[in-house]
Amino acid sequence: MKNALEILGKYWGYPSFRKGQEAIISAIESNEDVIALLPTGGGKSICYQVPGLMREGICIVISPLIALMEDQIHQLSKRNIRALMVNSTMTKHQIDIALDNACYGNYKFLYIAPERLETRIFKERLKKMNVSMIAIDEAHCISEWGHDFRPAYQKIHRLREELPNTPMIALTATATREVTKDIEKHLNLKNVKLFESSFERPNLSYHIHKTLGKQNDLDNILNRFKNQSGIIYASSRKAVKETYDYLYTNGFSATFYHGGLGNVERKKRQNAWTNGDNKIMVATNAFGMGIDKGDVRFVIHIEPPQNIESYFQEAGRAGRDNEKAEAHLLFSDKDLENIQTRHQKSFPDLKFIKQVYVALASHFQLATGSGLDERYPFDLAEFSRKYRFDLFESFSALKILENNGLIYLTEAGIRSSSMFIKASKEAIYSEQVRRKVSDQLINFILRTSVGIFDKYVSIDERKIAEKTGISLAQVKDTLQHLKDLDLIDYLPSSQSPEIIFTSEIIAQNNLRISSDAYSKRKEVKENQLNNLIQLLETKSCIQKEVLKYFGFQSNDCGNCSNCLRKNKSPLSKELVWTKITSNSITEIAQLAHELSVYNTSELIDILRIIEDEGKISISMDGSRFEKI
Predict the structure, then answer these.
(1) Are strands 457-458 and 418-421 parallel, antiparallel or unpaired?
(2) How far is CA 501 from CA 3, 383, 404, in A?
(3) Which residues does residue 58 pair with via DSSP β-bridges, in sequence order?
(4) Other CB atoms closer than 10 Å to residue 622's CB: what's the count?
(5) DSSP 8-state class, residue 506
(6) From 103's CA, which of 10, 61, 313, 568 has a CA 20 to 30 Å away?
């Protein structure tokens, strides 16, 4: 493993591997197949990137998320490691050039979406690639029992059939025992070695609060973490903005992040948080992939997440420096109603899903047999209004169509501007001589964009304008002019979501969406929801229950809200009355916080007894009380 340590030191600057990494790399070097279950922040990428650099040829990395691909390529690029990607948001020409480079360009890593593996162009180029190994990231996507099932993942085994002697590594941070078995079966792994690190996090304490007043509870938690970094997760963009507005109004150092923001704005906000300019990030679950920030002291969910997998992954972004950190989850009875309603709307009936597909074809005026790889700007709200569909049910139907390989729905701003120089250096020079503004622009791009004659390179028109003194409008006009001359290919950024048709339009009578697969997926999601609700309501150690869900045994942690509650004196009428009379508290939520480890519903029962004794009066909405 001397060579592996040298590579680790050269590119990452680490003197040694984390626990488990060295054994995984050694197994790959012995051409063995591997399943690696490592918790969030456990260094999964190094487990395939180091052997990928050690081996001759290119490592194919199958990844489900474009944002994750982009982040990995950015991280590798910073270390001068050559990597590229292929996904559904790219044009045919972009994909063509990327795959050419994968064959002949001396690249070490090709990140590819699973849906692209089945395309004719990929299968043709695969025959010409010298593939060193295959890494399957977020491997839980292969299992119908996993929380992010992607049907295309179940076809990855065909890659193994093409490359029978090439080692495979499947990596995930959120696999149950059932999912792990599915990974081995569906990938057709041979003599597989399973490596797993305990998901136990001794430095991270879990706190679940049934709340009467989220803002008051939020204040109380945040006031304990003044000037320290943290993340607040909310389930919708609206909730993110409302929470941010509240924090901003009350003087907290915060910013916010969701999929509706453009790429540039998202990166700007993430950098401000990473650098400490803003201490608190309020975000949907779109935020989190690729975070490399160890000093996150707290993660707060102000609403229940989708499932235990999401909760564990998001909460696990706290305390990666192994210093003490806390994960808080706030929920109310209303939240429980909302997540159950959301679950029902996530599975509209099959007839409605087909209606949405037919409406899409009509919306973009696409005839049967057309549309393959075509892309269109898409406004979900406008589409739903036009066809009188429920907004959330429309979105759910689109995701089911996506999972059936018919479409791909991008998020806003997912694609930054890019360009590729098609013409010879002589033809480019002739244009530079003819036009001064072209000369300025081309010289700047050539100085700052390595490899632009070989591949598409991301560009930032605003930054180009600032550095060259050319107006932004003129930068865009000149790039378009060069494109019109067929000297470059220029793809402006997409600031709105897009629909990409990944299959030819199918006639309504021939459209098939498997009812068995649909029913099974609904059952899986229902089980995950029930497990989440059981966790919210458990009186046992929270960490112990989370670990048990993933198949690990552990003792009580002693630090979670439930363990702390067990170690306190039982809540009594006398204790509550003493707290009331010794403070000027009138908010029930504030009183609950003062008795922070106690069950809120139990507190309310005791307050009702005190009210019956004529000592207090509780308001109609159950949020306040007054001493009589």
Answers:
(1) antiparallel
(2) 45, 16, 12
(3) 131
(4) 12
(5) P
(6) 10
Q: What beta strand segments (E) does 12-86 contain?
A: 34-37, 58-62, 83-86
Residue 297 main-chain phi, psi, to 5 deg: -90, -20
Question: Could you read off the pLDDT of 128-155 as tens digits, one per residue?
Answer: 999 999 999 999 999 988 888 888 899 9
- DSSP per residue, 299-343: EEESS--SSHHHHHHHHTTS-TTSS-EEEEEEE-HHHHHHHHHHH
* AA letter at 372: L
* Contact (CB, 8 A) for 494 and 377: yes
**Which residues make beta-bridge pairs with 134?**
60, 168
132 in Cβ contact with 55 (< 8 Å): yes
What the block records as the tokens of 364 is 């973009």
* In 386-527, beta strands by DSSP E: 407-409, 418-421, 457-458, 488-491, 498-501
In sequence order, the 6+-apart residues with CB closer than 8 A to the CB of 501 are: 366, 371, 372, 373, 374, 375, 406, 407
Residue 184 structure tokens? 């081995």
pLDDT of 597: 47
Q: Which residue has the tokens 């993933």?
A: 550
Nearest Cα residue to 454 out of 490, 503, 478, 420: 420
Which pair of structure tokens corresponds to residue 584?
A: 């000027």
Mean pLDDT confidence for 273-281: 95
Nearest to 354 by CA among 502, 522, 512: 512
Residue with tokens 């950024």: 493
The pLDDT of residue 1: 60
CA 223 and chain centroid, separation = 28
Give 299-356 pLDDT, tens digit per residue: 999 999 999 999 999 999 999 998 999 999 999 989 999 999 989 999 999 999 999 9
Q: Is the pLDDT of residue 493 over 90?
A: no
3-state secondary structure of 248: helix
Residue 351 phi/psi, 5-degree rounding, is: -60, -45
The answer to whether 397 and 349 have CB atoms below 8 angstroms apart is no
DSSP state of 515: H
Which tokens is 160 given?
């193994």
Distance (Å, whole) CA 267 – CA 263: 6
Contacts of 531 (CB under 8 A, 6+ apart): 307, 308, 549
Query: What radius of gyration do the chain's Cα atoms show?
Result: 27
The answer to whether 319 touches 295, Cβ cutoff 8 Å, is no
- Beta-bridge partner residues of 490: 419
User: Could you tell me the pLDDT band of residue 375, with boundaries at 50, 70 and 90?
Assistant: confident
Angle at 290 between CA 285 and CA 291, to 5 degrees: 80
Give the C-alpha separation, 480 to 106, whole Å: 31
Question: Phi and psi dihedrals of 614, rounded to 5?
Answer: 80, 20
Q: Quick one: DSSP state of residue 570?
A: P
Nearest to 339 by CA among 301, 306, 302, 300: 306
Alpha carbon of residue 78 to chain centroid: 22
The answer to whether the CB of 153 falls within 8 A of the CB of 187 is: no
Q: What's the pTM value of the predicted model, to 2 decimals?
A: 0.81
Q: What is the dihedral of CA 265, 419, 501, 412, to 10 degrees?
A: 10
Average pLDDT over residues 187-192: 88
User: What is the Cα–Cα distance from 495 to 498, expressed in whole angstroms?
Assistant: 9
From the number of C-beta atoms within 10 Å of its C-beta (0-12, 13-18, 19+), residue 165 rates as exposed
Query: Which alpha helices (H) appear in 58-107, and where do they start and end?
Result: 66-78, 92-104
| C-alpha atoms less than 13 angstroms from C-alpha of 540 in its C-beta half-sphere | 11
CA 200 to chain centre: 22
